[in-house]
Amino acid sequence: MEQLKMMLVDDEERFLSTTCKLLEKKGFDVQTASSGGKALEMLRASPVHVVILDVKMPGMDGVATLREIKRQFPMVEVIMLTGHATVESAIDGLKSGAVDYLMKPADLEEIIDKATQAFHRRTDIEEKIRVARMRGLMKTPREMLKHA
Known about the structure:
With 148 residues, this protein is an alpha/beta fold. The chain has helices spanning 13-25, 36-45, 62-72, 87-95, 108-137, 141-146; strands at residues 5-9, 29-33, 50-54, 77-82, 100-103. 53% of the residues lie in helices and 17% in strands. The longest helix is centred in the C-terminal third of the chain and has 30 residues, at 108-137. The mean pLDDT is 87.
């Protein structure tokens, strides 16, 4: 099975470096980006499964970044990271395609749990797509007999 690859996107450098180091110590493949624009640029170069995305960032905010991620990379699962003042933005994020949200300060185990759930959700969707494609390629027994 493929290993979960995640990206942390936040303008708080200390949060990024600390959380990244802790996740890597637990064996996760983690990238970090300090802005929405940088995250999109990195996703084009090196795709990930799950993005943990801060709602409140200067420039391109989290909701705008989420919409662009979902437009360009629809299979990437996004979890919004929000403070108390931006719960409404997290709800906007859920309406725009985020799979879940975390409240700051987020506990490391909670980040891991939600990212793992999102990863499994993505793998389930990918499997359903594979099965649907295979069914489209395979003939039914009735069609096979017709051509025999």
